[in-house]
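Q: Methyltransferase-like protein, please. Structure only.
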Amino acid sequence: MERFVGGRAPAASEYHCRDFEWEEVRRDAEAALEAELAVLRSDSPGSDKVELANRHQALPLASGTGRRGRGVAPVQPWGDDAANWERFHLRCNKSARFYKERRYLLLEFPALARTDPSPRVVELGCGAGSSLLPVLKANPGARAIATDLSPAAVDMFRSAAASAGICLSRYEALVFDAADSLGLNPLDGANADCCLLVFTLGALREEAMPRMLRSAFQALRPGGLLMFRDHGLYDVTQLRWPPAQRLARNLCHRQDGTTAYFFEPDRLRQLVEGAGFVARECEWACTRLLNRKRGLEMRRVFVHGLFERPLES
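A: Structure for Methyltransferase-like protein:
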């Protein structure tokens, strides 16, 4: 049995991103949320459920739906982000198998597979390597710098890379909080061709997102590409969250203190362009998955983005 996920799996042969339209999900999701609200309100006056319903009703729905309540609920502090993610990796991800390898990234972002010349890649929030390791395996000429704020995650990345037979000369793995505005940035001037930001930005509080995007900008050479993928609004994982854990329309918190933000393309574009990038691609990526064992169909919603650091910057 392979200790690290994806050790013997082949590269992805197809990339799906338009299995359905996001508007389909929006209609169904808002109907489900309205039904949930009605159930909560049907409980006795003054109960905890009614209090949750009042809070739930105040959360704004997607922009352009014609609904009221466009303000965003304030983000509540949930402790030390670095400590929360360190606990997650030590408790839930100690086998480095919590996340499957994202082999589709080489199809989603063809520049990662380039061989003449091979790319120099930086990843912010590498975790145990589920995004960057498939790139290093599939493209033998690629070189990389992997960073994460969790020392446990960085150790797992190194172990997984060693298990995959990836030469130490091809990568560096650093403990670095790319959203920290106070510390020195070891990536400044890294002159990378590509920067991966995959299911990382959405793990931050919104006020920290511009700092991480600025770190990405500094890590890239002029003309370098920021490659983004994260959860989109009304993804099935968001709809499974209980009302008590929804802080705002796009924001939920987990019991372990970590948070999850669910993006919309317009908001992502605003954030990334604010950090100095030029948008080349920024759109919904909607994928239909079938759990054959349970006979369940899941509509996954992501946001895909490709952004360039201007040549003159």
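A: Brief note, in case it's useful. Residues 1-7, 53-79 have pLDDT under 50 and may be disordered.
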